[in-house]
Fold this protein.
Amino acid sequence: EPKLVEDVILGCVTQVDEQGLNIGRLAPLIAGFPESVPGTSVNRMCASGLQAFNFAAMEVMTGQADVVIAGGVESMSRVPLGSDAAALSPKLLEKYEIVQQGISADLVADKYHVTREQMDEFSLWSHRKAIRAIDEGRFKREIEPVPVFDVNGQKRLFDTDEHPRRNTSLERLASLPPAFKPDGRITAGNSSGINDGACGILVTNPETAKNLKLDPRARVVSTGVVGTNPTIMLDGTIPAIRKALGRADLGADDIDLWEVNEAFASVPIATRETIGFEDSKLNVNGGAIGLGHPLGMSGARLITTMLHEMERQDLHRGLATLCIGFGMGVATVIERPT
């Protein structure tokens, strides 16, 4: 019953135009939820969806709510990235050199010694893993088909991601020019895609789940959120992971599956090499390079995709993490019942 929901928390980055005026409140009303169900919108940039999920878990874990819906939404075709941008404060610019995220991705590659060849190869595999997952039907359980009208006015069910490129190759990726600076390594091919997407996750406690005859699929073990240098900006995944693992007294070897957002290929590569875990456990169904990165929902999608894959492989524990603009990182550890 929708009336049982005590809060709706949605991540959304560009909160203007159709995504403005608190979409976290308006979307449930449009969906037919009772007026009594409140809602709010969260903007922790690329990690907004994961932060919304973490906030929901914290509400439930502290006993302030029993049933919360968390998730995220971003329509980057309707509300272009940067639509909410304004001139940066001169006081901020006196303290920090603020650059485009693509420049920061190059700085991450410099800091962690990631080559163009490594990034292009990683990107190719992101597409290939995503295509394999689609072809094998791995996403069917987690995607809710949406009725849409095509360009000819015909109604159809939209149930498959459009972004993965079946015709890409290492040669094609290598031929792409740098996108952000002439001597850079970041290209359109080793960066995440621009997409529309939305995601929702039901968060509750064991007692409420039992009363509602729901089978808990996983529990939140720990979270970590950190601030990092706002110029390099995109390596916050590393200290966030360490914080989340440390809170749970876990090590990298205790994690069976990893989801590291592929905002740019340098980020997951640097994270994997620094934390030290197997490539075979990382983004096994592709990531933001292959599937796309609808900013506000990606963090919630990482949790959703990771949980379904943990169930498919019968794994116990997973960690999802995202880098964040202006220098932050968020990580969350979940585990399935044994």
